[in-house]
Design brief:
Number of domains: 2
CATH class of the largest domain: Alpha Beta
Number of strands: 12
Distance between the termini: 18 Å
Strand content: 15-25%
Radius of gyration: 21 Å
CATH architecture of the largest domain: 3-Layer(aba) Sandwich
Order of helices and strands: EEEHEEHEHHHHHEHEHEEHHEE
Helix content: 25-40%
């Protein structure tokens, strides 16, 4: 579903890790795009490759065993996968920024908040130290942190989880990036703080006009924030569509199963719906057929043999399933 106007285009991405001398792909044949100013949510269970895909974009994979094996990551037409470390350092934090899942591990515990805030601006601006520190304090105020002039001299362990996440957001928007990647930014926070952080991210995204790639497993967050949704399972994109069609016209059995798992106020159930089984581990990924076959209620014998391809079932709506595969019309579902 590539677009000539896309800010980011991920094309046929394969990211793998070497385990016991053998390459295992955590991300396989992933393609999607993000338009300027668009909010794209990446959805799926833990272990589906969402974070690995985002680390591939940022070139932050572990050097000892992780690598992009195949594919392109085009940012404004420039392939990030082919850049040198120095070239990526010029892009990270300036053009593309990332908010990580757990701010306590993302922030350096032995450096003050101000030192870490200043570092982003030192790397990407030519301002004086005094101007940079004033900007850091201003950014902390922008994300709703009071007494910012004191917070800059404190350490991460002195702040609450919500405050640390606000610091991470301030660092991410310091250079007004064109693309913000947020990897489950509210996972470690309580519900009320989650709502505040999401509201803050939305407000800043609209003010700055940046595009955002939001990784989450919370479909409530998706409904509230997304323009478009990319559903991932076991390292592959299984559905890619706009947010309204995802909730009202889901196609892939995995997407339907995720939506069926949501508790509903109008229904009374003794037990919630669940998806049987678990996401296959990296070393046990199926080598043939659909990766969802063992958990799929609509599975057929052919599903274990045929590798389904991601294809459009209608304009702006792509699905990876034999039921919608035009190369197997005898199995094709009504769409």
């Amino acid at each position: 579903m590539s677009s000539q106007e896309a800010l980011l285009e991920v094309q046929n991405l394969h990211t793998g890790f070497t385990i016991d001398g053998e390459m295992h792909h955590a991300v396989k044949d992933v393609s999607f795009d993000v338009a300027p100013g668009e909010v794209v949510c990446i959805v799926g269970e833990s272990g589906c490759g969402k974070s690995v895909m985002s680390l591939s974009i940022m070139d932050l994979l572990p050097r000892h065993n992780g690598k992009i094996d195949k594919g392109q990551i085009l940012f404004k037409g420039r392939d990030l996968a082919s850049l040198t470390e120095d070239e990526m350092n010029n892009i990270r934090g300036k053009d593309i920024s990332m908010i990580f899942q757990e701010p306590m591990t993302a922030l350096n515990p032995v450096l003050t908040i101000g030192t870490q805030m200043d570092e982003v601006l030192i790397n990407h601006t030519n301002n004086s130290k005094e101007e940079i520190r004033r900007k850091s304090i201003s950014l902390l105020k922008q994300v709703g942190i009071s007494r910012s002039d004191q917070i800059v001299n404190e350490y991460p362990h002195q702040l609450s989880g919500g405050m640390r996440q606000r610091v991470m957001i301030a660092m991410a928007i310091a250079c007004q990036p064109q693309l913000l990647i947020a990897d489950e930014p509210t996972t470690a926070l309580d519900v009320t703080v989650q709502a505040q952080i999401l509201e803050l991210i939305t407000k800043i995204q609209e003010e700055v006009g940046m595009a955002m790639m939001l990784i989450t497993h919370d479909l409530g967050v998706v409904a509230e924030m997304a323009d478009r949704v990319v559903v991932m399972y076991a390292g592959q994109v299984v559905e890619d569509t706009d947010v309204d069609r995802l909730f009202y016209e889901p196609k892939h059995p995995y997407t339907k199963a995720l939506l069926d798992s949501i508790p509903r106020m109008e229904e009374t159930r003794e037990e919630l719906n669940t998806i049987k089984g678990i996401v296959p581990s990296l070393k046990n990924m199926p080598q043939r057929g659909c990766r969802f076959v063992d958990r799929c209620p609509a599975a057929m014998p052919e599903c274990s043999e045929v590798d389904p391809q991601l294809g459009e079932v209608e304009k702006g709506h792509a699905v990876r399933c034999i039921l919608y595969d035009t190369s197997h019309p005898e199995k094709r579902a009504e769409v």
